[in-house]
Specification:
This protein has about 325 residues and is an alpha/beta fold. The chain is built from 11 helices and 15 strands. A hairpin with a 4-residue loop joins strand 9 and strand 10.
């Protein structure tokens, strides 16, 4: 970058967008120029809070000459279209996972970013968090791995009637919640086959009240992993649990508490905070733009996990075990 400050445009006004806006406001290298939300009212309120201009559409935002970087924090369905338009307009792009709900479109966007010589960063802050870093630190003590279980189960009653409970806006559960699989591909590598079963409870067509998704991944190493992602009104007990079982030891993370278990010995594991991860991600992106510092994840790595998630979707639809294409 040859500019003193990067002009930023923000698409979205929700939780992630607010954390991004705070990070940009506190960064000496950025200027938050404009925002666009779901409604004119939310856009205006957000713009007033964060001292920027409210736009009427994301198409207008990505076309602005004073914006260098477009940050996409809106519904999953629109990620691909906005990223493609922003790159075509010569902007750098930060997009919250998933890059797209369509694998072919995600591949096209990565090719476009390279052709435009612009940054495309797909956020995966789960990799920066305390649990993931603690797992990486202690994984060598576990020995040869044979089984992993990762459950994120969230009861909500009544279930909110919002985009994360909408088939089209959120996408297939493990594509919309891509981090549940990306933790595993980052830690354990290539997946050979996927078997998935998924169920929705719904009283209308577009929105659902609950979903329960269980997936088995067979890795090329021989590791077997089971992932459960569930939320809504038919779920009765909250759980965020990650278990790793090896021939020498086991790692158990229950929420933000971790232990290493060996024969006759249990050792507590210190787990770092989940606070400030969006700010850390933003700072790393700016270091990359200004100083070509390395980032912690590549678009290609996110794309690979998207292929695994799409294999889970096809398995749930067909009842078949799906081979993941490399």
């Amino acid at each position: 970058m040859d500019k003193a400050k990067v002009g930023v445009g923000l698409v979205g006004t929700g939780y992630a967008a607010k954390l991004r806006a705070e990070a940009f406001l506190h960064a000496a290298r950025t200027h938050l120029v404009a925002v666009v939300g779901h409604t004119p009212e939310t856009s205006a309120a957000f713009a007033n809070q964060f001292q920027c201009t409210a736009m009427s559409s994301w198409q207008e935002l990505v076309a602005r000459d004073d914006i260098d970087l477009v940050t996409i924090c809106t519904v999953n369905r629109d990620h691909g279209a906005i990223a493609k338009a922003a790159l075509s307009s010569g902007k750098h792009v930060i997009v919250e996972y998933p890059l797209s709900l369509n694998v072919a479109e995600a591949e096209e966007i990565i090719i476009l970013a390279k052709a435009q010589k612009k940054l495309l960063h797909v956020e995966h802050i789960e990799l920066l968090g305390g649990v993931h870093q603690a797992i990486k630190q202690h994984l060598p003590q576990v020995g040869e791995l044979f089984y992993v279980r990762y459950n994120t189960i969230k009861p909500e009653y009544p279930a909110p009637r919002k985009w994360s409970y909408n088939h089209e806006l959120f996408g297939f559960p493990l594509m919309g919640a891509l981090s549940r699989l990306h933790r595993l591909t980052d830690l354990f590598g290539q997946v050979l086959t996927v078997n998935c079963h998924n169920r929705f409870w719904a009283t209308e067509t577009e929105y659902y009240q609950s979903c329960f998704c269980v997936t088995q991944l067979c890795f090329s190493s021989g590791l077997l992993a089971q992932v459960i992602y569930a939320k809504g009104e038919t779920i009765w007990h909250r759980e965020r649990r990650f278990e790793i079982h090896g021939e020498k030891a086991g790692l158990i993370f229950d929420g933000d508490t971790g232990i290493l278990i060996k024969a006759g010995e249990t050792t507590p594991i210190e787990v770092g905070s989940r606070r400030g991860l969006f700010a850390k991600d933003t700072s790393m992106v700016l270091d990359h733009l200004f100083h070509d510092a390395p980032l912690y994840v590549t678009p290609e790595e996110s794309l690979y996990t998207l292929k695994v998630a799409d294999a889970a979707r096809r398995s749930a639809e067909t009842g078949l075990t799906i081979v993941v294409e490399d």
